[in-house]
Amino acid sequence: MAKIKSKWVCQVCEYETASYLGKCPECESWSSFKEELIQAKSSLKNSNMIDNYDSYFAPRLLKDVNVDTEVYFSTCYSEFDRVLGKGIVENSLILLGGDPGIGKSTILLQVCGQLSSQGIKTLYVSAEESPKQIKLRAERIGISSENLFVFAQTNLNFIIDEARKLEPKVIIIDSIQAIYDPELSSAPGSISQIRECSNRLLNLAKYGSASIFLIGHVTKEGAIAGPKVLEHIVDTVLYLEGDAYKSYRILRTVKNRYGSTNEIGVFNMIDKGLVEVCNPSELFLSQRSEANAPGSVVISTMEGTRALLVEVQALVGPTSYAAPRRVATGLEYNRLQQILAVLEKRVGLSLSKYDVYASIVGGLTINEPSADLGTALSVVSSVRNIIIDKNTVVVGEIGLTGEVRAISGVEARVNEAVKQGFKKILIPEANLTDDLKNKNIEIVGVNRLIEAISKSILIPQEAK
Question: Which pTM value belongs to this model?
Fold first, then answer.
């Protein structure tokens, strides 16, 4: 009897070894190796090739390739369409990831319901739920359509066969980690299964008639399981984010071959599913105190082409430790350290004996430098126990010499501040242009951080 040969494969980076290793020498991941059988190539179906060879097209000149005008079709959710670009691209492969229970299956089932109500045939493949469970969720969120098919199956061959018979325009795979190719000996969810199944589904999308959504599980580190394998194969990568203790969800683009990677869509989770939020700034500022409070400043951040107004709060107090604490929530930690260093050196604000806590209220994460000026003013407001007018919005990047540097998207930020009823906005002097005239808001330009502090109408708390 022939000896069965096996290999050990890292489930993070696909590094192969003949024996088990506790730590991967390639990506340095611990306990990431799984044993997989080595099969003869002749016994394996070449799943990397297109299942239907007749679907291949002969090489053509680029100028001779015809592009239909209706390449995109809408999901009927403007927030979802914004994230995808203009809508779902025909014959595309889209990956949606997120934490367990965040609403991945719910939002895609809602998309299926909207599409099927327009007469678009959709197929929802569930590898983790029965048709009865899907029906219960559909009834809860109010979905009922004759064009929505459900299929509880984990075998990829059966899924592809049914997809070719039905010829749906949209297919949902929930989830890719539970689907398996019977020609492979490795277990479902292994990196070999994910790679082969994704490749065959990619071929089905590109050379068939359907756009395919893949739902991906997330690891403890917050990345989609098998991230490099999946992210390189698919056309678009979406993440559904949100605080477990809050009702809103943020749909964010990480990769998009057909649109911007900076757009976000905001949804609110209710009993009947996810409802899109068309005015996110109002949502993030909804619980803001009506009274002025020290350490609170409203800033404007850009998410793609959209301007959002959020509140940044700072709390500064005497430290009990030799090394003061610096805690940043929703802000980049190193950026906060840099802002504090500029305040000490250029403004003369001593913070060496104070703990500093800075947070973006609402759970949003901001990486762009335009939040620097608002963060600095919130720290000054907290440590001096003074308040900044609640009707003022602050934007600007701070340089190491204490200058306030120009930022992008100023007009959109000003328009959003006007829309939300603010009366004053501080912006970098370099961004003051004629295009900003005749706005229904007071626009103040600043060149230096110390100048921004003096012009932000600081009011002593005792005088409130």
Answer: 0.78
State how far the Cα of 26 lies from the Cα of 261, in Å rounded to an integer. 29
Residue in 453, 461, 286 with CA at minimum distance from that of residue 378: 453
Please report the pLDDT score of residue 446 as a whole number.
Answer: 95
- Between the alpha carbon of residue 424 and those of residues 420, 439, 441, the distances in Å are 11, 11, 6
Identity of the residue numbered 303: E
- On the 0-12 / 13-18 / 19+ scale of CB atoms within 10 A, 169 is buried
Over 60: is that where the pLDDT of 392 sits?
yes
The CA distance from 360 to 329, in Å, is 6
Contacts of 136 (CB under 8 A, 6+ apart): none
How many other β-carbons are positioned within 10 Å of the β-carbon of residue 152?
A: 15
373 within 8 A of 449, measured Cβ to Cβ = yes
Nearest CA among 238, 215, 210 for reference residue 120 = 210
Q: How confident is the model at residue 437, as a pLDDT?
A: 80
Query: CA-to-CA distance for 216 and 97, rounded, in angstroms?
Result: 5
